[in-house]
Amino acid sequence: MSKTNHAADARKKDAAEDLFLEQMSHQREVDAQQGEDDGTLAFAPNIDFDKFKPSRSSLAARKRKNILMTALIGVAFLVALIPLISVLWTTLVNGARRLNWDFLSHNMTNVIGGMPTASGGHGGVLHAIIGTLEITLGAMVISIPIGIMCAVFLTEYSKGGRLASVIRVLVDVMSGIPSIVAGLFAFSMFTIIGGPGTLNGFEGSVALSLLMIPTVVKTTEEMLRIVPNDLREASLALGVTKQRTITKIILRTSMSGIISGCILAIARVIGETAPLLMTAGFIVSTNFNLFSGEMTTLPVYVYQEYSKYKAHCPEGASASCVASIPMERAWSAALVLIIIVLILNIIGRLAARALSVKSK
């Protein structure tokens, strides 16, 4: 009896399903006749994509424009390379003439006119190299920590407050001041501290640091803004303090860009002459003490030698007396300065690669 009831129930269920499907099919036919969309693929619009295909004339115009713009970009690149190659080639050709070990290992002590010295050379740039490296290093020690900490404050702590706006305006103003103004400021400050006529290498470092700080602040701030907020949130969610998040996560992630910004700042000031003439002075001997006595840098050395133009050779002097030696020394010193900048760039790139976050 139970089997008969189950069979009857199954037949009733099948009949109900057949009736439901028949009603749905009929409803779809009605909807199709009335133009109604039930959301199925059968009612998807039939788009003729061939209408959107570009014509042959349009493709040809695109190709011509692409060739034209590629040619213009290539020409612009070559035009930009012309002055760079010209400067490098001219400096290399004229500077290599006197660039030797005697030139690099001697200063200008006991150099008289165009006559050779006891070593057989005609003076050198040892004192200028040491002065350039020490003064630039002093400027780096002052400006890089201040610039990085200022950028960290602007991006991580200020939250767009009024103080941050004032700092950004001051940084923009500092980035546009002439270098001679920075030299006047440093000269005036050390005149107040040490008395009139105070000249030393550290004074020059202070002047250069005023020119470096805006570049370091701007580049570091932009690098810190690039760091995703997800890294900050993930670190703080794990219970890491904000200070360690900044030092271990944010600064480490953006270290490569920060170092590149510092290199740009160094390249910005290493060739300055006017502020160093006022603050560090000029001497012919070697001074290793950054905080006492005048120091000579390579840009100042180039300026001084170029100003001489020609050296005095007495009548009846031998061929070893070179009247054009000041210009030759100026070109060689300029080549040495370019080489130093190149070496600093290479060191910076290697440091950026070593300190950057390794991605797997």
From TrEMBL:
Compartment(s) where it occurs, according to its Swiss-Prot or TrEMBL record: Cell membrane
Keywords from the named record: Cell membrane, Membrane, Phosphate transport, Transmembrane, Transmembrane helix, Transport
Stretches that traverse the bilayer: 66-89, 125-154, 166-193, 249-270, 330-352
The keyword Transport appears for this protein: yes
One Pfam family recorded for the sequence: BPD_transp_1
Topological category with respect to the lipid bilayer: Multi-pass membrane protein
Alphabetical list of Gene3D superfamilies matching this protein: MetI-like
Keyword Ubl conjugation tagged: no
Cellular component, GO annotation: plasma membrane
A GO molecular-function descriptor: phosphate transmembrane transporter activity
Domain ABC transmembrane type-1 residue range list: 129-348
GO biological process terms, semicolon-separated: phosphate ion transmembrane transport
Cross-referenced SUPFAM superfamilies: MetI-like
Signal peptide residue numbers: none
Function, in words: Part of the binding-protein-dependent transport system for phosphate; probably responsible for the translocation of the substrate across the membrane.
Family to which the UniProt record says this protein belongs: Belongs to the binding-protein-dependent transport system permease family. CysTW subfamily.
NCBIfam families: 3a0107s02c
Descriptive protein name: Phosphate transport system permease protein PstA
